[in-house]
Amino acid sequence: MSLQGKVALVTGASRGIGAAIADTLAAAGAKVIGTATSEGGAAAIGERLAQWGGVGMVLNVGEDGAIDALVDTISKEYGDVAILVNNAGITRDGLLMRMKDEDWDAIMDTNLKSVFKTSKAVMRGMMKARWGRIINIASVVGAMGNAGQANYAAAKAGIMGFTKSMAREVGSRGITVNCVAPGFIDTDMTRALPEAQREALVQQIALGRLGAAQDIADAVDFLASSRAAYVTGQTLHVNGGMLMP
Amino acid sequence: MENIEARVKKIVAEQLGVNEAEVKIDSSFVDDLGADSLDTVELVMALEEEFECEIPDEEAEKITTVQQAVDYVTAHLNK
């Protein structure tokens, strides 16, 4: 129960990687607030996390003022956020030649700008506490690129640069900021890929298989814990050897 | 007025980790009291909480000495 008493905010906790992260941090003793974009999703998260005392809340990261309002509510009801996991993300894949401005903007707003906004919103509490953990879920694609994902890769690489700058700004206050960059993980997002593309991707993985959401959650659990107190500004690649940067 | 000055000095001393006696009315946070840029942001946050007000970023940037902090708080508490 290494995270006993810490308030953890995990965005995009309905499914896949975010769900595994929320459950793992909750099982480690944190008071987890998992967010979903719909009431139904938030209720389902609440049911799942109830056994550990966690709750589900609605958050649409693109909505003006929504992030500040959520962080405010959490502070009042449960205390300041000590662990922030920026996991919420979407894809709008397509070749650059066919990519619409809206596809670019949607990815930048949801996947990158949201990280800036949530981090800023929790910063006051973390600085006062002289302790904090921000863990941003990036992607192997942000480090190696991927045809058809120029927008997604740009946002994920942006997260890595943001992480390094933040780590330098707030390190003196006991706050660490890191990324976990998942490789090819078996989730709804990757299940949407064509079979042929999935097989081609597996060929590039040293361990010869897809990762599980739990593999990512375990990395996040480590970075959130006191064991990772001297790790900041890093990107921890969890990709089965798909990329060795 | 004196009361505000004393409260401001106390917060400055606490936030910047200096002895309250070192905090003079004309002390500059950065030049005299060794604050870095993040310290000054935190200091403004602490002032906001102590005096229950919100200091806009444009105003916060202009508060670089104890006197300026006292003046700001005085002007805005009177409203």
What can you see in these coordinates?
The complex is a heterodimer of chains A (245) and B (79). By secondary structure, chain A is of the alpha/beta class. Chain A has one domain (5-184, 213-234): Rossmann fold (3-Layer(aba) Sandwich). Helices cover 47% and strands 15% of the residues of chain A. Chain A has helices spanning 16-27, 39-49, 66-78, 101-129, 140-144, 150-170, 188-191, 195-203, 213-224; strands spanning 7-10, 31-36, 55-58, 83-86, 132-137, 175-182, 235-238. A seven-stranded parallel beta sheet of chain A has the order 3-2-1-4-5-6-7, with helices on both faces. In chain A, strand 2 (31-36), helix 2 and strand 3 (55-58) form a beta-alpha-beta unit. In chain A, helix 1 (16-27) packs across helix 9, helix 3 packs parallel to helix 4 (101-129) and helix 4 (101-129) runs parallel beside helix 6. The two termini of chain A are 33 Å apart. Chain B has a single domain, classed as ACP-like (Non-ribosomal Peptide Synthetase Peptidyl Carrier Protein, Chain A), CATH 1.10.1200. Helix content of chain B is 57%, strand content 0%. By secondary structure, chain B is mainly α. Chain A binds chain B through residues 124, 127-128, 169-170, 172-173, and chain B through 36, 38, 42, 45.
Please write out the topology:
The complex is a heterodimer of chains A (245) and B (79).
Chain A (H helix, E strand, L loop, with lengths): L6 E4 L5 H12 L3 E6 L2 H11 L5 E4 L7 H13 L4 E4 L14 H29 L2 E6 L2 H5 L5 H21 L4 E8 L5 H4 L3 H9 L9 H12 L10 E4 L7
Parallel strand pairs in A: 1-2, 1-4, 2-3, 4-5, 5-6, 6-7
Helix pairs in contact in A: 1-9, 3-4, 4-6
Chain B lengths: L1 H15 L20 H14 L6 H4 L5 H12 L2
GO molecular function (chain B): acyl binding; acyl carrier activity; phosphopantetheine binding
Main location (chain B): cytoplasm
Protein name (chain B): Acyl carrier protein
